[in-house]
Amino acid sequence: MELKSICKSFGENEVLRDISMVIPKGSRVLITAPSGRGKTTLLRIMMDLEAPDSGEIKNRPRRQAAVFQEDRLPEEFTPVNCVKMTCAHGVTKELIRENLAAVGLEGHCDKPVSQLSGGMRRRVAIVRAAMSGADTVYFDEPFTGLDDATKKLVIGYILNNCEGRTLVFVSHCPDDAKLLNAKELRI
């Protein structure tokens, strides 16, 4: 995917100015910037959820998945059903349970999402994106609400289960680039 001269303003507030970058297929990148500098807006433009004021994106992937800042999980669904709704046909509930257990959610697979903590919801959203079969997965501040040990567990899960896919992370923490073995791109 190639971004060429992306610009975006909201009224008088210019959040993105002349952003250009190439994200090779199968790579891992971490987009960093201080809070309020347009990281989420850039992701939304990359996913074609928002239009730039000017600039273009070439070679946008067809099959995309995302972990948004807000988890966007149906409150009445169980974690298993939340993940199942985005999986390819034929993915078993047992496999989904194994993936949820890999991020420390064994014993919580049959509870409604409304009964899960914020960190648990975050992990369900991550498993849902990882199991979606998407070629490119976007992660917007994916480690919010996770303690250090859980964060390391989740990073291991992502790296093991998204091998060969393009992974685009957004964070205000540049140290995440090393943990993710990702190229850091500052905007």
Q: What would your notes on this structure say?
A:
There is one protein chain. By secondary structure, the chain is of the alpha/beta class. It has one domain (23-37, 61-186): Rossmann fold. Helix content is 30%, strand content 26%. The strands form two sheets. A five-stranded parallel β-sheet has the order 5-6-7-3-8, sandwiched between helices. A three-stranded antiparallel β-sheet has the order 2-1-4, with helices on one face. Strand 1 (2-10) and strand 2 (13-22) form a beta hairpin. The mean pLDDT is 95.
Overall mean confidence score, pLDDT: 95
Alpha-carbon distance between the termini?
A: 17 Å
With strands numbered from the N-terminus, the spatial order across the biggest sheet is 5-6-7-3-8
The appropriate CATH architecture is 3-Layer(aba) Sandwich
Radius of gyration: 17 Å
What fold name stands as the CATH topology? Answer: Rossmann fold
| Fraction of residues in H or I helices | 25-40%
* Tally of contiguous helical segments: 6
What is the H/E string? Answer: EEEHEEHHHEHEHE
In what range is the share of β-strand residues? 25-35%
- Find the count of extended strands (DSSP E, 2+ residues): 8
CATH class: Alpha Beta
Structural class: alpha/beta
Low-confidence stretches: none
| Count of discrete structural domains | 1
The major β-sheet equals: 5 strands, parallel
Envelope shape = globular
